[in-house]
Amino acid sequence: MSYYADFAPGSGRRFPRAAFTSDAPRIDLNGVWRFHLSPTIAAAPEGMHDPGFDDSGWDELAVPSHWQLRGHGAPAYTNMLYPFPLDPPFPPDENPTGDYRREFEVPESWDGMGAVLRFEGVDSCFKAWLNGHELGFSTGSRLPTEFDVGEVLRPGRNVLAVRVHQWSAGSYLEDQDMWWLSGIFRDVQLIARPPGALDDFFVHAGYDHVTGRGTLRVDTTVPATLTVEELGLRDVPADREHVLDGVEPWSAEIPRLYDAVLATEGERVRLRIGFRTVTVEDGLLKVNGKRVLFRGVNRHEWHPRDGRALSEATMREDILLMKRHNINAVRTSHYPPHPRFLELCDELGLWVIDECDLETHGFHDVDWRGNPSADPRWREAYLDRIRRMVERDKNHPSVIMWSLGNESGAGDNLRAMAEWARSRDPGRPVHYEHDRDSRYVDVYSRMYPPVDEVEQIGRRAEKPLDDAEADAHRRGLPFILCEYAHAMGNGPGGLSEYQELFERHPRCQGGFVWEWIDHGIAHPELGYAYGGDFGEELHDGNFVTDGLLFPDRTPSPGLIEYKKVIEPVRITIGDTIVIENRYDFRDLSHLAFTWRLEEEGVTVAEGVLDVRDGRAPLPRLPATSGETWLTVRAVLAADEPWASAGHEVAWSQALVRPAVRRTTAPHRRSPEDLGTFDPVTGRLVSLGGLPVDGPRLDLWRAPTDNDIGMFESVEREWRAAGLHRVRHRLLGVSRDGGELVVRTRVAPAAHDRAMLATYRWSTEEDRLQLVLEVEPIGDWEDLPLPRLGLRMALPGWISRVEWFGRGPGEAYADSRRAARIGRFAMTVDEMQTPYVRPQENGNRADVRWATLTGEKGGLRIAGDPTFDLTVRRWTSEDLDAAKHLTDLVPGDKVYVNLDIAQNGLGTASCGPGVLPQYRLLARPASLTVAFSRVDA
Ligand code: GAL
Fold first, then answer.
1. Is residue 407 annotated as part of the catalytic site, yes or no?
2. Are 158 and 219 members of one domain?
3. 89 domain-assigned
4. Would the pLDDT of 667 be above 70?
5. Is 110 inside a domain boundary?
6. Which of 107, 150, 109, 108 is nearest to 131 (CA)?
7. What's the CATH number where 323 sits?
8. Measuring from atom 9 of ligand 1, which residue has the nearest CA?
9. Are 123 and 76 part of one and the same domain?
10. What confidence tens digit (pLDDT) does each residue in 887-897 have?
11. Ligand 1 center to 98 CA (angstroms)
12. Catalytic member of 174, 359, 483, 599
């Protein structure tokens, strides 16, 4: 069988071992290589491995990179579907094949040493030749491969040739929900192996939380000595158990590392050791004797121009962003990350679930027929993958669990992986979500269950398994959500309901939001491309853009919300201020607590709180007359490696003085004195000379990805009900005292249900006041409305918005914890949230008043008491029709929505929909707003 269609994962490779750097010489083989792409294997050039081959006509390609992102071939996105027939282990004949060549010099000083050629990641299958000698082949795209090359290496010029196939038997094991991208996408190195070099080592650094002692032993392949200066260990035998008093343990919160040196006859290795012990006991997952709570995310490696070929700067940026948003855990979905990422996790502090490069999800579509997980012919490939992950990453304190992979059904090959991992490394529990009965895992893990089910699991009262023994085992396990809260588009909604359960039930040890970053590809015409934008035959559209970060790593509102919901310090403002520590290990001495008093959003006093034993007296507050809020913030008192002093960790607000309700003055003037109304339709057409398309009832929003949903789709119901195409019929214009009353019936074609909308216009001093009354008629049942409120349009020169209400970011019914009451100002453009696929966004909640202005003045809108506000340069229909941000073109108007409410967001793009309490049902409702002209 051809190697690329072989069940065997590789040949000619060295045994897997830890990733480490030492003082042994190495040659970096990253950089510019010669490259040639052929559409099939048959078309690939012959003899390319021959050192004398003439590659002068070839292109150049950077290593590491993906060829599809450097002008060769095209990316393709599928979630579950394999983009080739299910015909294992055969790849299709149309198998793009990239040939790589480069020359390099080896100094004379390497003479007498062995050498290893190391590839950190090649997608999906490759064969390598050095100086014309075939070294072997390998699969396992996100796993390292090493070849012994000492025999064939020579001083001076050497020629390395690598043939990479996009598809291989290995592709059947790599059906992760992501772009299919090929090539040598991680580093390539040549590492000298001096005589007496250390092949491999395994650091065992435990912490006994009862005695405070550390134990340290480093198993090595050749005799080695260990030095840890700080602990008084100097050149001691490495493989002896050293018991160390007074060790400071490692945790994600306090990532204490000890520098060490491991020395053999041949080389010296610098280590960073973290002491920690991971156990599952009393049904809980504990680190250093304490239950830990994961505030996690799933992280794919992603960069909008480089795909999965990440720079160290990008890896660091990811971790800094996580730490700054209170995230303490990462699942490396769904493959081991670049090894440097884990070093940074050790250093900066994150709990890591290291997940193996394995997914066979596409077999789900054929009822799991032929699933490799249950086919013994694939056993060796499965074991190969877990070995290469565990051996590479075993020395990282941050890695606290091994995950077998993702969505690969069930089968004995997975069980074999679990058994191997446990026997090689008893110090880490094993995770795998698709083992539904949790028979061979140490943690019960689920994705996207609704809150009520999580609550049952929290009480260990979940639905029993048929097999009593299996049930007892699973019921005794700790529980995590390896995925929840699908962050696709606008959302996720409903984070806090999960968090409350994690905090209430010790068994619920937190979760990992799906996912960290949108995998949008930077595109010259489309902004960011997603599935289908490269002409793929099969694709899953924008399902690939479902992250808490936009592709350029700007935090989305979802991340800001998550930060707030998971904050590790809870501040409650009452008669006193109570500060609750929700860290697992850290005290609060690294935080300073500040307060600020704002009247109508303007700071009137501020200071620092004196917190003792988790309490601080309320500061003495000056008298105010307008609506007044007290904000208390927990900020870093000093710089941390991941943020500067002053960085906000947590906050809370309390209303100190409510707004004084306006007392409506008698109507002295008629509405027509302040505004012009269309005599036929009764619509306002100008206000103090400012042209307006007067406000009228609006029910529609551009459906979010969560409205569109995966299983339950509220969008489908909305369209079926015609909520995107309602018409307004005038019932009458009349006078009621000083009021101008316009009555309308608002309804879509082909239905008898409607909304009666009555607009009552009156004046109040120089303000034109509008009371909207809405009455649903006919059978609306439980159909939630997208939104309920008013839409109007203003001239396009309106460019700036200032408001007093929640902000600065957008907020929706079930995603509003992060929006605080204050006074904010932004341009209209800044108010838009750039979801990669355009959809409803930018709602500002609980707005008391807003001014919308431009060079010619503008409009002030005051709520009685509040309204929700959206301002944009296109309509909801334009948003709905747009496929990419570049489809949104400003026109000559600015559209303004003043809402009573909108439906919540939920997370139905993959998971449960909007919780009942956040559904906007059709009920009689009213909204009061007053308009006044703002002069230029
Ligand atoms: C999960 C899967 C992830 C991703 C997610 C939806 O089922 O594990 O890889 O596909 O759904 O975005």
1. yes
2. no
3. yes
4. no
5. yes
6. 150
7. 3.20.20.80
8. 177
9. yes
10. 999 999 999 99
11. 29
12. 483
Are residues 301 and 430 located together in one domain of the fold?
Answer: yes
As for how many domains the chain has, the answer is 5
Does this model's pTM top 0.85? My answer is yes
177 alpha carbon – ligand 1 mean position (Å): 6
Q: Is the pLDDT of residue 668 over 90?
A: no
pLDDT surpasses 70 at 664: no
411: left (phi over 0), alpha (psi -120 to 50) or beta: left
Phi, psi of 554 (to 5 degrees): -75, 130
How far is Cα 139 from Cα 9, in angstroms, rounded to an integer? 5
Name the CA radius of gyration of the chain, rounded. 31
Q: Is 482 in the pocket of ligand 1 (CB under 6 A)?
A: no
Residue with tokens 């009965």: 437
794-831: b or e for each residue (b if 16 or more CB lie within 10 Å)? bbeebbbbebbbbbbbbbbbbbbbbbbbbbbebebeeb
* Active-site residue, 483 included: yes
Whole-number Å distance, alpha carbon 484 to ligand 1 midpoint, is 10
CA 633 – ligand 1 centroid, Å? 36
| pLDDT for position 1 | 74
Q: Do the domain assignments include residue 785?
A: yes
Q: Which atom of ligand 1 is nearest to the CA of 543?
A: 12
Helices 339-348, 379-393: axis angle to 10 degrees equals 40
Q: What is the pLDDT of residues 694-724, one digit of tens each?
A: 999 999 999 999 999 998 999 999 999 999 9
- The verdict on 790 and 914 lying in the same domain is yes
Q: Is the pLDDT of residue 663 over 70?
A: no
Residue 465 DSSP code:
P
Q: Which atom of ligand 1 is nearest to the CA of 79?
A: 10
**How many CB atoms within 10 Å of residue 225?**
18
Q: Is 483 close to ligand 1, i.e. is its CB under 6 Å away? A: yes
* Cβ pair 340, 272 in contact under 8 A: no
Asked if 521 and 615 sit in the same domain, the reply is: no
pLDDT (mean) for 164-190: 98
Share of the chain above pLDDT 70, in %: 99
Alpha-carbon distance 843 to 646, whole Å? 29
Q: Is the shortest distance between the CB of 432 and ligand 1 below 6 Å?
A: no
Within this chain, do residues 456 and 542 fall inside the same structural domain, yes or no? Answer: yes
User: Model confidence over 28-82: pLDDT tens digits?
Assistant: 999 999 999 999 999 999 999 999 999 999 999 999 999 999 999 999 999 999 9
Span 852-874, average pLDDT:
98
Q: Are residues 258 and 273 in the same domain?
A: yes
Neighbour count for residue 467 (Cβ, 10 Å): 12
Q: Is the pLDDT of residue 536 over 90?
A: yes
Q: Which atom from ligand 1 is nearest to the alpha carbon of 406?
A: 8
Q: Is 177 in the pocket of ligand 1 (CB under 6 A)?
A: yes
> Which ranges of 460-573 would DSSP assign to H, the alpha helix?
468-475, 495-504, 557-565
The tally of CA atoms less than 13 A away on the side-chain side of residue 62 is 12
Determine the distance separating the centroid of ligand 1 and the alpha carbon of 483, expressed in angstroms. Answer: 8
Its domain, for residue 320, covers 292-565
CB-ligand 1 contact for 497 (6 Å cutoff): no
Q: Residues 343, 359, 407, 455: which is the catalytic one? A: 407
Q: Quick check: is 287 in a domain?
A: no
Residue 546 beta carbon below 6 angstroms from any ligand 1 atom? yes
Which residue in 928, 935, 599 sits closest to 764, CA to CA? 928
Q: Is 903 in the pocket of ligand 1 (CB under 6 A)?
A: no
Tokens of 371: 């699933």
Q: What is the CATH number of the domain that holds 596?
A: 2.60.40.10
Q: Do residue 213 and residue 302 come from a single domain? A: no
Strand positions, DSSP E, 545-642: 569-573, 576-581, 591-599, 602-608, 615-617, 628-636
Compute how many other C-beta atoms are within 10 angstroms of the C-beta atom of residue 317. Answer: 15
Does the pLDDT at position 91 exceed 70? yes
Give tens-digit pLDDT for 213-267: 999 999 999 999 999 999 999 999 999 999 999 999 999 999 999 999 999 999 9
Distance CA(869)–CA(741), nearest Å, equals 24
